[in-house]
């Protein structure tokens, strides 16, 4: 059993546990092809993945210098969502070390949860296809809470649904919403620098900065 007083670990999903960018970018490029637009280079749109489909689409239209009305953007987003639902785990894969570390933390007695701005049903679908859903006490998507990250309530509700509280929680993520949500909730945050962020994780100044998921257990001990 863990001896830490902070036994509740709130994980972001995209860019933290799973590299979902390839499938999301494929969905983006399929959606914009309806307007006869060429694919957006992955390296350019990748930082926007963590901000969601609408942000990715907005960037794609800016990249092509194409003005788009809100109704058209929402229609493109529906196309994006439908394609992504049907192809959610074609190229997505867990980051190095996740497959080993998550079960080990679970066995050690940590309460593991997912706190994601992804719609909840998609988060569950993805983790089930990756055979990882069983390790998480709850998977809390943005569509099931009044205020999503970076609002503190998303973290508080996730912890409550997992049977824990913010008082013994740590946020673990890869982008601005994760760090800001942790600051708003007044809990520690561990940041990974390999994910999707328009601002470098080092510049966001998490309590601990990691470059490999395999380093998470030792980081947790350091925070304890």
Tell me what the structure shows.
With 224 residues, this protein is α/β, with parallel strands linked by helices. The chain folds into 2 domains: 8-19 and 93-223, Rossmann fold; 21-86, Orthogonal Bundle (DNA polymerase, domain 1). 44% of the residues lie in helices and 12% in strands. The chain has 10 helices and 8 strands. It has helices at residues 21-33, 42-45, 53-63, 70-86, 98-108, 120-129, 152-161, 176-185, 201-204, 216-223; strands at residues 8-11, 18-19, 93-94, 111-115, 138-140, 169-173, 189-192, 208-210. The protein has a 6-stranded parallel sheet with strand order 5-4-1-6-7-8, sandwiched between helices. Helix 6 links the parallel strand 4 (111-115) and strand 5. Helix 3 crosses helix 4 (70-86). The protein is elongated, with a radius of gyration of 17 Å. The mean pLDDT is 96.
């Amino acid at each position: 059993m863990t001896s830490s007083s902070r036994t509740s670990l709130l994980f972001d999903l995209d860019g933290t546990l799973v590299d979902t960018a390839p499938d999301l970018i494929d969905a983006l490029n399929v959606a914009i092809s309806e307007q006869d637009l060429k694919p957006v280079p992955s390296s350019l749109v990748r930082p926007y993945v963590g901000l969601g489909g609408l942000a990715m689409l907005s960037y794609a239209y800016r990249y092509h210098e194409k003005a788009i009305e809100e109704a058209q953007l929402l229609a493109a987003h529906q196309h994006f969502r439908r394609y992504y639902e049907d192809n959610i785990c074609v190229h997505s894969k867990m980051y190095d070390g996740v497959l080993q570390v998550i079960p080990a933390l679970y066995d050690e007695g940590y309460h593991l949860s997912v706190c994601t701005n992804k719609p909840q049903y998609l988060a569950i679908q993805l983790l089930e296809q990756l055979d990882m859903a069983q390790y998480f006490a709850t998977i809390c998507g943005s569509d099931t809470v009044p205020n999503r990250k970076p609002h503190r309530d998303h973290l508080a509700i996730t912890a409550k649904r997992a049977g824990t509280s913010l008082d013994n929680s740590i946020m673990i993520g890869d982008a601005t919403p994760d760090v800001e949500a942790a600051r708003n909730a007044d809990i520690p945050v561990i940041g990974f620098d390999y994910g999707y962020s328009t601002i470098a994780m080092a510049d966001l100044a998490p309590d601990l900065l990691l470059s490999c998921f395999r380093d998470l257990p030792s980081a947790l001990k350091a925070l304890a």
